[in-house]
Amino acid sequence: MKAMIVNEFGDSSVFKPTVLAKPELKPGHVLVRVVASSVNTVDMMIRQMGPDLPLSPSAPAVLGMDFAGTIEAVGQGVTDYAPGDEVYGCAGGLADLQGTLAEYMLADSKLIAHKPKNLSMREAAALPLVAITAYEGLQRAQVKEGQNVLVHGGSGGVGHIAVQLARYFGANVFSTGGGENQLNLIEELGATGINYKTETVADYVQKHTQGKGFDVVFDSVGGANLLNSFEAAALNAQIATTVSLLELDLTNAHFKGLSLHVVFMLIPMLHDHKREVHGQILATLTDIIEAGHLRPVLDDLSFSLEEVGKAHDRLASGQGLGKVVIDI
Prior knowledge:
single chain; alpha/beta; Quinone Oxidoreductase, Chain A, domain 1; Rossmann fold; 2 domains; seven-stranded mixed beta sheet; six-stranded parallel beta sheet; 15 strands
């Protein structure tokens, strides 16, 4: 099979075309003919950092986590899928799991679900990592109908899904963006846009919650922005974040009695821990998507398997809007 491989880690030029043997079928797994994959920030981190990032595979490696494709064969014990089924998932590209940047991949059947019928393969491939992350974060934050929910970075990969899911759960959704294109997308997805470059946290908390703060804050920006989340939160509010690799002053969180949920969706893959939960979330998302409540936003540019380096550059540039997808 054709594949793109990294023999060393570094800039986007490290990807090299190669030919590998098809993966051998294993019990509990399916062999998938990959049609599309999408690029996530963690894919770029693995490519750049290699062994400095504990979850990285050893070189030579096939990277890529998200995929959509068609099942070619099923292993012993797999009963929910059959050859010919169209599926999607986040099932490789780290530790000892072969990634998606190849014509075929072996996927644990617990990590996948049937592809939504109303999405193309490219659209479905854009979803797994970001959609599972957004769903898990909102569920852990116990989002409820009628609550005021703030999503930081609502035009980004995780953020644009969190905006739509929070609306699906019945919340009043507000989201930060940094420019006209971002704010237009946020409004199109059904949230009230907040320009974080021109409005202070105190300003928009007063404007949208009469100074009380937001019941739930989903922070897909994270890092130092968590201090803004603490400031924007109501008393006893819930905060979910996807980025918390830093030292942080929790004083404000203490005096507000906030609950902080750190979402690291790679745990099931990395540690073979409750993998079936990801399959269950994806199946739920398929129902939500087929009912018309959720859609991925794709970047205008598309890339072939051989152009994976350019796809990484596109995501890194910050000039795209929506998920960057690679046609395999």
